[in-house]
Amino acid sequence: MKYVIALAGNQNSGKTTLYNALTGNNQHVGNFPGVTIEKKEGQIKRFKDASLVDLPGIYSLSPYSLEEVVTRDFLLKEHPDLILNIVDATNIERNLYLTLQLMELSIPMVIALNMMDEVRASGNSIDVMKLSKHLGIPVVPISASKKEGVSELVEVAIKTAQEKRKPVKLDFCTGEVHKAIHAISHLIEDQAKEAEYPLRFAATKLVEGDELTFKELKITESQTHIIEHVVEDMEKALNTDREAALADMRYSYIEQICRDTVIKKQETREQIRSEKIDKVLTHKYLGIPIFIGIMFVIFWITFGAAGAFLQGYLEEIIALATDYVANLMESYQVSPWLHSLVIDGIFAGVGSVLSFLPIIVILFFFLSMLEDSGYMARIAFLMDKLLRKIGLSGRSFVPMLIGFGCSVPAIMATRTLASERDRKMTIVLTPFMSCSAKLPIYGMMTMAFFPENAAFIMIALYIMGIVVAILSGLLLKGTIFKGEPVPFVMELPAYRIPSRKSVLLHMWEKAKDFLQRAFTIIFLGTIIIWFLQSFDWSLNMVEDSSYSILATIGSLIAPIFIPLGFNDWKASTALISGLTAKEAVVSTLSVLTGTVTDLELSTALSTIFTPLSSFAFLTFTLLYMPCVAAFAATKRELGSVKNAVLTAMYQTMTAYVVGMVVYQLGNLFI
Amino acid sequence: MTLDSIKPGQGGIIASVGGQGMLRRRLLDMGLTPNTKVYVRKVAPLGDPIELFLRNYVLTIRKEEASKIELKEVFNE
After folding, report:
1. Of the ranges A170-179, A352-361, A483-492, A548-557, which is most confident?
2. pLDDT single digits (tens) A613-664
3. Min Cα separation B44/chain A (Å)
4. Structure ipTM
5. Which residues lie across from A38 on neighbouring strands?
6. Given A62, A65, A488, which is nearest B62 (Cβ)?
7. Band (A25; pLDDT cuts 50, 70, 90)
C-alpha cells in the first residue's frame, strides 16, 4: 500500500522547513497541471511507501485565489490518504481557520503544531491533549527547525492514514449557520455524492456562496432558489451576510478553543524581537535608505566582488578545458567542422552561459536569506506604493531590481510572488530592466558616437527601460492582465534566522535548474546559432562569417530596421547573435567589421550608424527579447513555450516601436 | 470611523467589513471579522500601506482596503 500525504498550511508556518525535514533530498519539483504553481513531491525518510506532496501556502479554501483552488482540487480530486496540516503555534488563531476548512473534506488528518519551542520558551503553553480532543484529530507538537517531534509526527501520520481515521468533529456552531448548513446538506446529498464532494464541505461552501461548488455539483435553478432562501433567512437573523457569517462562525469557534487550551502570558520572544527590528527596518525615514543599502551590498557582492571573481575563475577553468579538448582533437585530427562545433559552438556558447552559475548561486543565497528571514515581506511593505500604479504589488520589486544585474535569476526569483498574475506580469516586464550584459554594448556605442556624454546616454537608457516597463505595465494591466488584481493583504511574519538546510537546498535547486537548462535549451540554442554562423547555404563551412547563413538572414532582415535609421546586415546579424548572450553583439560587430582595436571598431561603426541611429540601435538592444538563457527561464516559469514565445515577441515589438519613435522623433528635432 | 482614519498606536473593534469579492473574502479569512480587536501599528514610509496587529499577528493592508473596515469603538493602546 502506498500512501500519499498532502502537506497543507499557512504561508510562514514553517511548511517548507518541515517538508525538507521530512523528505530529505529526494524531491521532484514540477507544476500543478495547467498553472505555474509549484508542486513538490518527495519520499518520506525511512518510509519508502509514503510520499509527501507540498501544497501551496494558503490561508483559506476560497474560490478566488488560484493557489487555494489548486489546493482544493488536489484534495478533492486526487484523494490523498492524509492531510498533514501544519499550524504555527505562535499564531494559532489564524492558522486554525484553515484547519477547520480542511477538516470538512472528510480526509484523515493530523495537525503538526509547529514552533512549540518558541511558545514554551516565552512561558506560554498550549494544552495539546485538549486541543486534539476539541478538534477530534491527532495533534503532534513539533519544532520543524530543530527537528523536535518530527519522527513522532511521521509515526502518528502513517498510523492515522493506515486506520483511515477521518475527522469526526464537524459541528463548529449552533444556531443560524448550523441550521442553514443542515438544511442545505439534506437538499444536495445525492449531488455531492455524485460529484465526490464531501457533503459537509459542499453544504458549507454553498452557504458561503462559493460559485465553484455551485457549478461542480450542478445545482439546479430551483435548488439555487431554495438555497438562496435559506441563506437569506440566516443573513436576516444574524444581521450580516453569508461570507462574514461563516468567517465569524469559524473564528468564534477558534476563540472558544483557544480560551480553553492556550495559556498566553506574553508575546513570544520572536515577536518582541521582531517589533524591535521593525522599529529600524521599516522606520519612517530610515526604512528605505536601509533597504537600498542592503540591496546595494547584495548587488556589490553578487555582481562585483565575489560573483565577478568566481565568474572569472570559472571562465578560466572553462578556457583551460576548452584548450585541452581543442588540443586533444587536433592531435586526433578530427574534421574541422567537428572541431568548430565543439569549440566555437558548444564550449563558447554553453561556457559563456555556465560562467553565470556563480552569480546565480550567490544571488539565490541572498534571496533565500531575504525570504526566509522575513525581510522580503518588509520590502513589499516598503515598496508597495511605487508598484501599485502599474498593477503590481511591492513583492515584484525584488525580481525587477535583480533584473538590472541579470534577467535569468530575476525571472527565476518571481517564484516568490504569491499570485500567478503578478508573477506572469513581472516576468514580462523584468527584462526591460537593463541587464549588466548590455553594458559592453552601451560602452562600444557611446565610445564611437557620444564620447563626451557617455554617462548621460547610459543613464538615459536605464531610465528608458524603467519608463517602458511602467508604460508596458499600464498597458498590460488594462488588457491581457485585466481583472481583479490579487489584493495586497499580507502577513508580516516574525523575523527568524534562516535555517542552513533550507538556504542550501534552495541554492542547490536553483543551480540544478540552471544547469539543466544550460545543457538542454541553451545548448540547443547555441548550436543553432553556431551552425548559422559557420555554414553557408550549400552547407560548406565558411572561413569568413560574412558569407554565412546568419549573414544572409542578417541582410534579409536588415531593411526592417530602416525606420530605426540603420540598414546594414552587420547590425542585424549582431542583433541575432546577441540572442546567445547580449555581449555577443559587440564581438559579432567586431568580427563582421574585421576590426581589432576599439578605435578601428568606432570608425567602422560610424559607417553603419549616425549618432541618432546608434541611439535607436541601443534602444532596440535595451528592450528586445532577452538572451537564450533568460528565454529558457521565461519558458520554465511561464510553464509553456507558447507563452514564452509570445512574451519574446511582445518585447521585440516594443523594442521596435520605441526604437522607431526615438529615431523618427529625433529626426524631427535634429 | 474607518480603519484607515485612525492613527498608529490606536486600535478599534471592527463593526463591519465592506467591499466585495476576493478582497473582502481575503480580509475576512485573515481574521478581520466583526468584533475583532485590531491595532494600527505603523504607516509605511511612502504613506501606504499600513501595518496592523490583530489576533496575535502582524498584517499589512492598503489604506484603500482599510477604508472598507468600519470600527465601532476606537481606543488608544
Report:
1. A548-557
2. 999 999 999 999 998 889 989 998 898 899 999 999 999 999 999 999 999 9
3. 6
4. 0.96
5. A31
6. A488
7. low
Contact list, A93 vs chain B (CB under 8 Å): 31, 55-57
Helix residue spans in A24-91 (DSSP H) = 66-77
pLDDT over 80 (residue B59): yes
| Residue A233 pLDDT > 70 | yes
A485-494 burial string, b = 16+ CB within 10 Å, else e? Answer: bbbbbbbbbb
Q: What is the pLDDT of residues A75-117, one digit of tens each?
A: 999 999 999 999 999 999 999 999 999 999 999 999 999 999 9
User: What distance in Å separates residue B75's CA from the closest CA in chain A?
Assistant: 21
CA distance A485 to chain B (A): 9
Cell 510572488 sits on residue: A417
Q: If you measure CA to CA, which chain A residue comes closest to B21?
A: A64
**Distance in angstroms (rounded) separating the CA atoms of residues A454 and A457:** 5
Q: Determine phi and psi for A290, rounding to 5 degrees.
A: -65, -45
CB of B20 within 8 Å of a chain A CB? The answer is no
Of residues B51, B56, B62, nearest to A91 (C-beta): B56
On chain B, the residues whose CB falls within 8 A of the CB of A493 are 58
Mean pLDDT of B10-37: 93
Neighbours of A239 (CB within 10 A): 9
A440: helix, coil or strand? helix
**Cβ contact A283–B17 (<8 Å):** no
Q: B30 in contact with A at a CB cutoff of 8 Å?
A: yes
Which residue of chain A has the CA closest to B43? A284
Q: Do A287 and B45 touch (CB under 8 A)?
A: yes
Which of B24, B25, B62, B70 is the best substitution to test chain A (most A C-beta atoms within 10 A)?
B25
User: In angstroms, what separates the C-alpha of A32 from chain B's closest C-alpha?
Assistant: 22
Ranges of beta strands (E only) in A242-299 are: 262-263
Looking at residue A540, what is its pLDDT? 85
B70 touches chain A (CB under 8 A): no
Cis upstream peptide for B49 (omega within 30°): yes
pLDDT digit string (tens) for A236-285? Answer: 999 999 999 999 999 999 999 999 999 988 888 999 999 999 999 999 99
Question: Do residues A580 and A588 make contact, with C-beta atoms less than 8 angstroms apart?
Answer: no
Give tens-digit pLDDT for A137-179.
999 999 998 999 999 999 999 999 999 999 987 778 778 999 9
Q: What is residue B35's predicted lDDT score, i.e. its pLDDT? A: 93
For residue B16, the chain A residues in CB contact (below 8 A) are 240, 244
Within an 8 Å CB–CB cutoff, is residue B64 touching chain A?
Answer: no
**Residues counted in chain A:** 670
**Domains, chain A, ordered by start:** 3-163 (3.40.50.300), 175-263 (1.10.287.1770), 289-483+506-669 (no CATH)
Tell me what percent of the residues of chain A surpass a pLDDT of 90.
Answer: 54
Angle between helices A628-638 and A420-429 (to 10 degrees): 170
- Predicted confidence band at B77 (pLDDT cuts at 50, 70, 90)? low
CB A408, CB A634: distance < 8 Å: no
Name the band, by pLDDT with cuts 50, 70 and 90, for residue A487. confident
CA dist A521 and A629 (Å) reads 8
Shortest Cα distance from B39 to chain A (angstroms)? 14
CA distance B65 to chain A (A): 8
d(CA A23, CA A46): 9
Q: Report whether pLDDT(A124) > 90.
A: yes
- Which residue ranges form the domains of chain B, and what is each CATH number? 3-76 (2.30.30.90)
- A489–B26: do the CB atoms touch at under 8 Å? yes
Interface size between A and B, measured as CB pairs under 8 A: 128
Task: Determine the residue type at A199.
Answer: L
